[in-house]
Amino acid sequence: QEETSSRTRGRGHLSQLVRGDERNTTDNERLQNLPKATANPARADNMPQWAQDMMSEIKKTNAEITKYREETKTEIMRCKEEIEKGRKESKAEMEKWLLCEEVRLISETSVSLANKMEARKKEVDDTLNDQSDSITSMETKLKELEKEMLMLRRRSEDLEARSRRNMGVREGAETGKTPSEFIAGLLKEKLGLSVTPTLDRAHRTLGARRDGAGAPPRAFVVRCHYYIEKEEILRKAREMERTPEGRSGRIHIFPDYTQEVNNKRAAFKEARSLLRTYGGVRYRLRYPATLVITPEGGQTKTFETPKDAMEFIKKTLTPG
């Protein structure tokens, strides 16, 4: 409204200026017709009334023009300020819009990257799950193969042990008989067997004959034909070790195991030596390498490792 009123006033002033210019033209023509003496200020009072009115109107018009000029100048300054303010506001709005657009683009890019990473993560998880399943399956198969290999190993050791010549005695006089006949008769005589055992073969251990005085004789190695007779011979030999004749070292009978089985059985040597100091405790080493302990009036225990056997002996048994 202020701008409208200012513009209206401006148009009014301009119309007045135009009319003033027309009047000035007419008045100038009249002044030219006046006597020159009337133009002297000192004689202004002698001017006609219409001239005085015209002068007053000119002064009034000049004042209005000056006022309009100041108002216009003020209006122009105000417009400049409003334009500058609008420019700043537009710039701020533009910067705000650009910032929002940048944030939006960053957000969309972040969402896209997050989706790609999630998809990649899922792909990696699926791959890891597949690999984990494969590893689990391989571990299961490996354990089965280890069990199978252990079983085959035990069977191999057992077959090797059964196929080997399986007992030995120290060298003695053969009395002109074959080694098999001599050992069969000796075993029946010394162990008190009810029948003469059937032997597939018998021979002395490999090596040079030792006939020197005090030289230990070579041992005999024999193979029994029947498993039952072999077990009977070993049982009788264990019983004989408890007799004075057996402890004197005149005859010794022991199984001929594979090297691996012998190592496993030898690992129980300390436990067996300790068990000899405990009275009333029965023990034996079961094939291939299992220590069986039966305390007096107690329950029979079996041990696969020397460590477990030693812990049981020290914690449970009392020396007799």
TrEMBL record:
The keyword DNA-binding does not apply. This is L1 transposable element RRM domain-containing protein. Residues 19-30 have a biased composition (Basic and acidic residues). The keyword Cell cycle does not apply. It comes from the Eukaryota. PANTHER family: L1 TRANSPOSABLE ELEMENT-RELATED. Residues 1-50 are annotated as: Disordered. Residues 51-89, 128-162 form a coiled coil. Keywords: Coiled coil. The lineage of its organism: Eukaryota, Metazoa, Chordata, Craniata, Vertebrata. It comes from Maylandia zebra.
